[in-house]
C-alpha cells in the first residue's frame, strides 16, 4: 500500500522549524565560543614541556574524546546539581557540555596545526633569544592558524549536528520541536524528512567552505 505524503503540513507549521533552527544556531555559536576558549589554551598546554601542564590537559582531551557527547550532556544536566547543589537550565547545560566536548577536539586541532609548522622556524626564533611563548604567539600560531581554519569550520558543523542531543533533556532545538510537532500531527515521515533537509541546508555550506579552503591551501602550499 502506497504512503500518502502530506507535505502541506510543513507550510502550516513553518514557524516551529524557524524557532527550532534559531535555538540550534544559538546553541552552536555559544558552544563553539566556549570550545575555542577551552581548546586554544588547552592545545598549547598539551605541547608544554612541563608535565604539570601537559598531563592534566592530556587527560581532559583523551577523556572527552573517548566518551560519548550524549553521556556528557546527561551527566552535566543530572549529576551537576547533585554534586554542586544547583541545577543548570537545560539549554545552559547543553551549551556547557557541547563546549567542553568541543574544546577537547579543538585542542587537538591546535596541536596538529602547530606541529604542521616547520620546526626550524621555532628553533630559529629561540636561537635569537625569543621566549617560548613569544615565539609561539608571533611566529608559529599565525602560520598554524591558516591550517586550523578548515577543521575549525568542520567542528562548527559537527556541533550543529550534535545540538540535536539536546532533545534528550528537553531543549527546544530543531529535533525537539519536530518531535513535539509529530505528537500533534502524527506525520513523522514528512517532518523527519523535512528536518533532514533543514539540517543539510544549514550544515552543508560550512562543510563546502571548509573543503574549498583546504583545496586552496593545498594549491598554495
Automatic annotation (TrEMBL):
**Chain segments annotated as transmembrane:** 21-43, 63-86, 93-114, 191-209
Q: PANTHER family recorded for this chain?
A: GLUTAMINE TRANSPORT SYSTEM PERMEASE PROTEIN GLNP (PTHR30614:SF20), MEMBRANE COMPONENT OF AMINO ACID ABC TRANSPORTER (PTHR30614)
- Gene Ontology cellular component list: ATP-binding cassette (ABC) transporter complex
Q: How does the protein associate with the membrane?
A: Multi-pass membrane protein
Q: Which organism is it from?
A: Achromobacter aloeverae
User: What is this protein's function?
Assistant: Part of the binding-protein-dependent transport system for glutamine; probably responsible for the translocation of the substrate across the membrane.
**GO terms of molecular function:** transmembrane transporter activity
A Pfam family recorded for this sequence = BPD_transp_1
Family the entry assigns = Belongs to the binding-protein-dependent transport system permease family. HisMQ subfamily.
Instruction: Answer whether the UniProt record assigns the keyword Transmembrane helix to this protein.
Output: yes
Name the UniProt key words of this record, in alphabetical order. Answer: Amino-acid transport, Cell membrane, Membrane, Transmembrane, Transmembrane helix, Transport
Subcellular location field: Cell inner membrane; Cell membrane
ABC transmembrane type-1 domain location is 21-210
Top-level taxonomy: Bacteria, Pseudomonadati, Pseudomonadota, Betaproteobacteria, Burkholderiales
Task: Provide one Gene Ontology biological process annotation.
Answer: amino acid transport
**What is the name of the protein in this document?**
ABC transporter permease
Amino acid at each position: 500500500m502506497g504512503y500518502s505524503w502530506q507535505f502541506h503540513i510543513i507550510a502550516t507549521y513553518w514557524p516551529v522549524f524557524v524557532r527550532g533552527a534559531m535555538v540550534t544556531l544559538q546553541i552552536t555559536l555559544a558552544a563553539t565560543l566556549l570550545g575555542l576558549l577551552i581548546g586554544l589554551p588547552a592545545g598549547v598546554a598539551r605541547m608544554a614541556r612541563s608535565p604539570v601542564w601537559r598531563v592534566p590537559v592530556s587527560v581532559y582531551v583523551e577523556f572527552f574524546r573517548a566518551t560519548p557527547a550524549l553521556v556528557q550532556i546527561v551527566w552535566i544536566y543530572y549529576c551537576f546539581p547533585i554534586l554542586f547543589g544547583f541545577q543548570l537550565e537545560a539549554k545552559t547545560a547543553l551549551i556547557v557540555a557541547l563546549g567542553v566536548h568541543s574544546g577537547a577536539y579543538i585542542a587537538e586541532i591546535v596541536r596538529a596545526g602547530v606541529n604542521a609548522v616547520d620546526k626550524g622556524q621555532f628553533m630559529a626564533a629561540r636561537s635569537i633569544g625569543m621566549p617560548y611563548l613569544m615565539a609561539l604567539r608571533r611566529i608559529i600560531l599565525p602560520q598554524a592558524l591558516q591550517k586550523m581554519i578548515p577543521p575549525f569550520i568542520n567542528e562548527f558543523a559537527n556541533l550543529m549536528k550534535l545540538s540535536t542531543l539536546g532533545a534528550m533533556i528537553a531543549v527546544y532545538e530543531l529535533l525537539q520541536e519536530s518531535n513535539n510537532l509529530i505528537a500533534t500531527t502524527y506525520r513523522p515521515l514528512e517532518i523527519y524528512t523535512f528536518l533532514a533537509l533543514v539540517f543539510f541546508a544549514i550544515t552543508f555550506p560550512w562543510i563546502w567552505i571548509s573543503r574549498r579552503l583546504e583545496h586552496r591551501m593545498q594549491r598554495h602550499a
